[in-house]
C-alpha cells in the first residue's frame, strides 16, 4: 500500500488536464485555494511596496525556483560561489538551513577556512556547499538580513548569495535567478498541495535570469524566455494551456540559459581518493540516494556504463542510521556488487556512520552553464558596486 507521501507524489506527477484522480486529489485542490490566496496577498503587498524590502550595503544574488523539489539550486549556488571567488570577489552564502537543528538567529556553518557545524545542526545542503566551496563563508538562519549583516561585518563579504530564496522577498536582491525544470517547469500546473508549485507561473516576472535545468539535447544559444509559457513554448502545459486560466505573458527580454548537471568524478569517501568516471564502466554497483530525484542518479550511473545491480531510494534529506547501512550492505552482497555508490549530498549524512561511509564512493556532480561567458558577464554587470 502506498504511503500518503507516495500517493501525493503520484498525483503531482499526473497530468493536470486529465482530471482529478480521486478524492485525495480533490481535497488537495480545495486546499490549494487558501494557499494560493495567501500567496497572492503576500506578493501583492510586496509588489505595491506596502511591505518594504530591507536592503544590505552589498550586492545580493538570489537562487531559487517556483516548485518544490530538486531543480539544481545547490549546484548552482556552488557554481556561483566558486565563480565569484575565482574572479576576486569575497562571496558568502546565506541559507535557511533546512532540516538543521540549530535555531540561533545566525549560525556559522563555515568561516571560509573550516567547517564549524555538522549536517544535523546546519542541514545537509549548507554543509555540502561549505565542502564544495571551501573558501566561502556559509551561514544559516531564518532572517537573511541578519545572516547577511554578519557575513559582511564578520567575514568581509562583498557580495551575498541567497540559497533557495525566490520566495524570500523580505530582503532586496540585485539579481534573481530562477531555476526551472526544463521537462516539467510547472509540474502538473497546480499550487501546493495539489501540485508542486510554490507560487503561480506569473511570479517569474520577478526573475532577472531563468536557468533551465535537467535539460538534455542539442545546444542552443541563450535566448529570451517565450512571451507565453504555454504547452507549445515550454513542451508542457501548466494545467490550462489556453483559456482564462492560461499562464500570462512574460517579458520577452528575460534572458534564459541552460544549466546542465554533469558527473565530475568519483571520490572514495574513506580515503578521499579521486577516481575517473571511466572506473564505472562495466562495474557492477549497488547505489542508494535520498534526494529529490533518486531515479536521475540511477540513470546517470547507467549512462556512465555502470551495471546497477541494486538500487535503494530513500526520502529526500533522509537521516541515515545503522539499520540503513546494514540494509545497503545486504543489498550489495546479494547483488554481488563490487562498489557501493551514493551522491555527494547523501555522503554528508553518512558522517555519523564512519565505518560504513568508508566503504562508499560518491559521484560528484558539477553545474555547467552553457554560454558561461555571457552568463558571467550578466552576473557581474549586476553586482558591479
What descriptive keywords fit this protein?
single chain; 385 residues; alpha/beta; 14-stranded mixed β-sheet; 12 helices; 14 strands; 21% strand
Summarize the structure in words.
The chain is of the alpha/beta class and 385 residues long. The chain has a domain at 271-358. Helix content is 32%, strand content 21%. It has helices at 4-13, 23-47, 73-86, 119-122, 124-132, 144-155, 231-234, 294-303, 322-335, 344-348, 354-357, 372-382, and strands at 60-65, 91-95, 107-110, 138-140, 159-163, 175-181, 209-213, 223-224, 255-268, 274-275, 284-289, 307-313, 339-343, 360-369. Strands 1, 2, 3, 4, 5, 6, 7, 8, 9, 10, 11, 12, 13 and 14 form a 14-stranded mixed beta sheet that branches. A hairpin with a 5-residue loop joins strand 9 (255-268) and strand 10. Helix 3 packs parallel to helix 5 (124-132). It is globular.
**Number of strand segments:** 14
Principal-axis shape equals globular
Taking the alpha carbons of the first and last residues, their distance comes to 57 Å
* Rg over CA atoms: 21 Å
Q: What average pLDDT do the residues reach?
A: 89
Count of helical regions:
12
Elements, N to C (H/E): HHEHEEHHEHEEEEHEEEHEHEHHEH
What low-confidence regions span 5 or more consecutive residues with pLDDT below 50? 15-20, 217-250
Helical content, roughly?
25-40%
The profile of the biggest β sheet is:
14 strands, mixed
Class by alpha and beta content? alpha/beta
User: How much β-strand is present in the residues?
Assistant: 15-25%
Amino acid at each position: 500500500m502506498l504511503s500518503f507521501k507516495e500517493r501525493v507524489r503520484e498525483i503531482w506527477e499526473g497530468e493536470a488536464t486529465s482530471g482529478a484522480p480521486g478524492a485525495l486529489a480533490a481535497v488537495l485542490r480545495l486546499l490549494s485555494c487558501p494557499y494560493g490566496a495567501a500567496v497572492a496577498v503576500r506578493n501583492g503587498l510586496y509588489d505595491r511596496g506596502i511591505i518594504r524590502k530591507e536592503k544590505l550595503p552589498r550586492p545580493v544574488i538570489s537562487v531559487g525556483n517556483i516548485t518544490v523539489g530538486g531543480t539544481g539550486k545547490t549546484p548552482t549556488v556552488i557554481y556561483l560561489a566558486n565563480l565569484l571567488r575565482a574572479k576576486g570577489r569575497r562571496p558568502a552564502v546565506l541559507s535557511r538551513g533546512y532540516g538543521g537543528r540549530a535555531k540561533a538567529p545566525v549560525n556559522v556553518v563555515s568561516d571560509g577556512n573550516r567547517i564549524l557545524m555538522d549536517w544535523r545542526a546546519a542541514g545537509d545542503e549548507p554543509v555540502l556547499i561549505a565542502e564544495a566551496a571551501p573558501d566561502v563563508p556559509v551561514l544559516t538562519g531564518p532572517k537573511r538580513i541578519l545572516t547577511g549583516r554578519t557575513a559582511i561585518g564578520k567575514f568581509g563579504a562583498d557580495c551575498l548569495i541567497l540559497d533557495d530564496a525566490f520566495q524570500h522577498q523580505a530582503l532586496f536582491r540585485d539579481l534573481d535567478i530562477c531555476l526551472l525544470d526544463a521537462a516539467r517547469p510547472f509540474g502538473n500546473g497546480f499550487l501546493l498541495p495539489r501540485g508542486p508549485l510554490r507560487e503561480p507561473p506569473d511570479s517569474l516576472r520577478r526573475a532577472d535570469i531563468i536557468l533551465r535545468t535537467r535539460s538534455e539535447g542539442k545546444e542552443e544559444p541563450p535566448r529570451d524566455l517565450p512571451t507565453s509559457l504555454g504547452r507549445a513554448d515550454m513542451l508542457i502545459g501548466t494545467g490550462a494551456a489556453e483559456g482564462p486560466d492560461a499562464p500570462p505573458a512574460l517579458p520577452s527580454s528575460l534572458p534564459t540559459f541552460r544549466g546542465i548537471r554533469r558527473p565530475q568524478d568519483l571520490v572514495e569517501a574513506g580515503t578521499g581518493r579521486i577516481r575517473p568516471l571511466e572506473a564505472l564502466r562495466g562495474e557492477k554497483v549497488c547505489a542508494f540516494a535520498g534526494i529529490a530525484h533518486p531515479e536521475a542518479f540511477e540513470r546517470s550511473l547507467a549512462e556512465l556504463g555502470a551495471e546497477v545491480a541494486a538500487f535503494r531510494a530513500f526520502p529526500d534529506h533522509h537521516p541515515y542510521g545503522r539499520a540503513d547501512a546494514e540494509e545497503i550492505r545486504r543489498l550489495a552482497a546479494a547483488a554481488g556488487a563490487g562498489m557501493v555508490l551514493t551522491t555527494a549530498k547523501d555522503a554528508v549524512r553518512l558522517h555519523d556512520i564512519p565505518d560504513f561511509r568508508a566503504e562508499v564512493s560518491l559521484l560528484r556532480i558539477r553545474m555547467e552553464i552553457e554560454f558561461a561567458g555571457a552568463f558571467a558577464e550578466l552576473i557581474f554587470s549586476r553586482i558591479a558596486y
